[in-house]
Amino acid sequence: MTTPPTTPPAAAAHPDLLQRLHATVGDAGLVLDAEAQAPYLQDWLGKWHGRTPVVVRPSSTEQTAAVMAICHETHTPVVTQGGNTGMSGGATPDGSGAQVVLSMVRMNAIRHVDPMNNSLTVEAGVLLANVHAAAAEIDRFFPLSLGSEGSCTVGGNLATNAGGIAVLRYGNTRDLVLGIEAVLPDGRIWNGLRALRKDNTGYDLRHLFIGSEGTLGVITAAVLKLYPRPVARATAWIGAASLEALVALLARLRSHCGERLVAFEMMSQASLDLVLAHVTATRAPLAGQHAFHALVELADTRADGLAELLEEGLGAALEDGLVQDVAVCTNASQATAFWKLREGISQAQVRAGKAIKHDIALPISAIAGFVAQADAALQALQPDVRIVNFGHLGDGNLHYNVLQPADTPYAEMTEKTALLNRTVHDLVHAIGGSISAEHGIGQLRRDELPLYKPALEFELMMRIKQALDPNQIMNPGKLL
Amino acid sequence: MTTPPTTPPAAAAHPDLLQRLHATVGDAGLVLDAEAQAPYLQDWLGKWHGRTPVVVRPSSTEQTAAVMAICHETHTPVVTQGGNTGMSGGATPDGSGAQVVLSMVRMNAIRHVDPMNNSLTVEAGVLLANVHAAAAEIDRFFPLSLGSEGSCTVGGNLATNAGGIAVLRYGNTRDLVLGIEAVLPDGRIWNGLRALRKDNTGYDLRHLFIGSEGTLGVITAAVLKLYPRPVARATAWIGAASLEALVALLARLRSHCGERLVAFEMMSQASLDLVLAHVTATRAPLAGQHAFHALVELADTRADGLAELLEEGLGAALEDGLVQDVAVCTNASQATAFWKLREGISQAQVRAGKAIKHDIALPISAIAGFVAQADAALQALQPDVRIVNFGHLGDGNLHYNVLQPADTPYAEMTEKTALLNRTVHDLVHAIGGSISAEHGIGQLRRDELPLYKPALEFELMMRIKQALDPNQIMNPGKLL
């Protein structure tokens, strides 16, 4: 592009918006071509689609600030996007054609590496996998672990407070952040890039931006906490007759192994069967069938005795009849094979048909009771219901999904989705659970949120939104 | 008291305030007698003093809500108070006589104990020591550890985001909280008592109230996170020639011992000498003198090999010449004696004279450089300066204090305090540190905060304050 286009592709955009943006970010910072825009206008699940006058790709905090100042002045709505791997449509513009997509992927510098402080300062567009690599280079560990780590960005992780498979031990993304830098809706830069473990000097704005799904401002950089790098892992597969048994095992292993316990994943026999049927090169980890399975992992900075510790804990559980069968990995390739079963569930679901998905969190002590109730309620609605129940048991986070046969007619599926969703979420709500454990609200759960969020909490959220984004230009149509 | 007094003791209070409060909380909930009020009107350091029309002691969330509704209607300012052990005067009313003191100590129920969920739901007035006991009863551990644990309350811990000696491993108070219940300035109750590890359904209001020093609402209850109970500890004392050496040792021990490392406390030789001189029944932990000392502790759910692990790590540091001397405890009484030295510093300081105190946080990698600079700057101002430098090195948190001889004239002391404070805090600020690591702002640092907090961040804090407490009745004169 040598001259900026003078006619914006969408009527709703401000007349001189594109020219001003071009003057700010140049050719490399604008995507105007429809084909080139396409990947930014659809989420990776292919569920949501939108339009935009322009995709803007700033390469620095200053450029981001200048872009936001223009959008502020022109009252142009902005949808911030990272790696576009979200599960709830939070980073896809709506169909109006008025919303600018602000892609952060060019802000991909690792600004500062500080091994003594166990911290890493990175820009929003850095890939999670590159954070892992940068930490490993200085013999440290960044624990956030997601399936999409090769394509998701730190900014997206923060905006959605991403979860994943190491939350049991290390917490959610918000727990892994020391400080952030953010551009406010009016284009001013807030430098909260503090690399401190303790700072009691007022309201914690960091935690307000984290998890706000791009509705309060644009996170441009963050100081991430690093941890000692585990050098040894011990992994086991467990079969049990009930969820109660696995919950009891979780409590036992925490007492026995302490904070070495980094993952406690669960899947029902039906979930496992689905993987075995649909994912190639998989085999059953245990000889028999068990109502529920767990995949457990310990990690430590010391190798000696780690596998024995796990064997000891599981051996006692086996002897006591708490669990039915156990396989402790004896080598890394066996562990990889076990993890492949857990990670294969998403793929297996896709191949098996449409799934009505839930990403729920419950008090761990309430999980077994919830599942019994929910199973019964769904069976009452649909006698041949196929429930794919798996998740991060150690965090109380279930992906309690309902599988529909691949040939279910679309209309029937849609109608059923609303009913089954409602049934599951009403039960979750009744026992103090969350309808979005780690995927966020985005577009997916936006209409449901007012049903379950206390009205007063909703009001407080709206007041904060009003205080920080009075023109309501940040990611309209999402979350709130 | 059989009839409520009709004349409020302070002219500024609303005419029927006391009658309405009495109707809400009854005799047991009001303290009107001057002598009985006295402990509520002065902080425990004796630094701040105030007046109040009445001390209100609600016994339930509903009573708290009713009290706040009355204060809201009458525009009565409210100072919430827990165990009154704060370090910054954040819970002491001002001298106007208009501020009601809302004491939470009667809200002291442990509402729910959930071993399987590793959580504990407690009211704001529960003593921290009672939280420890309740956790221990179910073989769990609540890690927040403060000198004042026998008198401080959970509500105060949350309002100030208390730190203490286990932050290195477990984080600050905010990291130990799953959910909270709060009464808003207008008397409405927000029930955010979620006992969930994951919940991505909007802005994290919990983190907004935590650390807000009573300026946004009244925290009435919280769901606390519990941890596996360590059954073994290993403790050692280390002498080193420099702070650089201790910072390097910290990094080494984290890699070597992983998350077993729960405490890494530091004190200068001068700090140790002060304890040895002023605290009875103490003796030097090492034979020689060392510029800096460290007290290090590991904890684990397994006893086997813990002391050996520490010995191994410290032995290598000794061999490499990183540290000068090491004493690993061989029994619990030796560990107690070591901790007595660390904990004795406050008492020793009091006996040695007035101290100009700083509670600062720095990137750990910047600590040694900061101390060299600060020492030099203070010596330039006062050649005979006595610096008492100690703190939580593992968290980058120094109590970098300046001791004045007991006979320093008051006027000289006051003048010097301002100058020395400013010198230290300017340096802290220049390297991205915090002027309040764990003690909060309260009254103590309120005037300093605008010097160091970015104006934009200050503005955002004010906007949030305005959004949540539009009548500005919550703890006026503190923090903001």
Question: What do you see in this structure?
Answer:
Two copies of one chain form a homodimer. The first copy, chain A, is α+β, with helices and mostly antiparallel strands. Chain A folds into four domains: about 15-105, Uridine Diphospho-n-acetylenolpyruvylglucosamine Reductase, domain 2 (2-Layer Sandwich), CATH 3.30.43; about 110-230, Uridine Diphospho-n-acetylenolpyruvylglucosamine Reductase, domain 3; about 230-340, Alpha-Beta Plaits; about 345-450, Alpha-Beta Plaits. Helices cover about 35% and strands about 20% of the residues of chain A. In chain A, the strands form four sheets. In chain A, strands 12, 13, 14, 15, 16, 17, 18 and 19 form an eight-stranded antiparallel beta sheet that branches. Chain A is globular, with a radius of gyration of 23 Å. Chain A starts with 16 loop residues before the first helix and ends in a 12-residue tail after the last helix. The relative contact order of chain A is 0.11. Chains A, B: One of its GO terms (biological process) is respiratory electron transport chain. Chains A, B: GO terms for molecular function: catalytic activity; FAD binding. Chains A, B: InterPro entries: FAD-bd_oxidored_4_C (IPR004113), FAD-bd_PCMH (IPR016166), FAD-bd_PCMH-like_sf (IPR036318), FAD-bd_PCMH_sub1 (IPR016167), FAD-bd_PCMH_sub2 (IPR016169), FAD-linked_Oxase-like_C (IPR016164), FAD-oxidored/transferase_4 (IPR051264), Oxid_FAD_bind_N (IPR006094). Chains A, B: Keywords: FAD, Flavoprotein.
